[in-house]
């Protein structure tokens, strides 16, 4: 499995993954284009020429946000999400971030366990954050050292 920087040509390949993983909350291709154009840090995981997952990070000043992480369902449970979170945290440190924050759906226990294992702590709840479904999001934060 290779993890590399996301490029514009990956967007078409990640669309079906985005729809499968996030359904009604899926980002449009234009949203990914915008993220790349803004200089945000996105990764893709590629195995045998196919995308297995992707993740993104935005850094502004000393604050960073993990925007999204997706792993193809058949590839889950093998440490790929963990590896990408670690890479995003390393990038946040390189860019001088003091904290990293994220939102995660209240009903996404596997993702919450992953973030807990990296030392993220819940600091709040955004009611109805995921607009298409009305699902609440936990806000989690990690202090970087």
From TrEMBL:
Could you tell me what reaction this enzyme catalyses?
N-terminal L-alanyl-[ribosomal protein bS18] + acetyl-CoA = N-terminal N(alpha)-acetyl-L-alanyl-[ribosomal protein bS18] + CoA + H(+)
Q: Where is the N-acetyltransferase domain?
A: 1-145
Which family is annotated? Belongs to the acetyltransferase family. RimI subfamily.
What InterPro entries does UniProt report for this protein, alphabetically? AcTrfase_RimI/Ard1, Acyl_CoA_acyltransferase, Bact_Acetyltransf, GNAT_dom
Membrane-spanning parts: none
Q: What is its EC number?
A: 2.3.1.266
Q: Could you tell me what this protein does?
A: Acetylates the N-terminal alanine of ribosomal protein bS18.
**Highest taxon of the source?**
Bacteria
UniProt lineage: Bacteria, Bacillati, Actinomycetota, Actinomycetes, Micromonosporales
Q: What is this protein called?
A: [Ribosomal protein bS18]-alanine N-acetyltransferase
What are its GO cellular component terms? cytoplasm
Where does the signal sequence lie? none
């Amino acid at each position: 499995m290779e993890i590399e920087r996301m490029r514009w040509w990956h967007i078409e390949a990640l669309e079906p993954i985005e729809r499968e993983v996030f359904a009604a909350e899926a980002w449009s291709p234009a949203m990914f284009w915008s993220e790349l154009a803004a200089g945000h840090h996105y990764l893709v995981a590629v195995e045998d020429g196919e995308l297995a997952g992707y993740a993104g990070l935005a850094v502004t000043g000393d604050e960073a946000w993990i925007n999204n992480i997706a792993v193809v369902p058949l590839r889950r449970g093998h440490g790929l999400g963990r590896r990408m979170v670690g890479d995003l945290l390393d990038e946040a440190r390189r860019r001088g971030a003091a904290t990293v924050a994220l939102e995660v759906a209240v009903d996404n226990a596997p993702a919450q366990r992953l973030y807990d294992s990296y030392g993220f702590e819940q600091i709040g709840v955004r009611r109805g954050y995921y607009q298409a479904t009305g699902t609440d999001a936990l806000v989690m934060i990690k202090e970087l050292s």
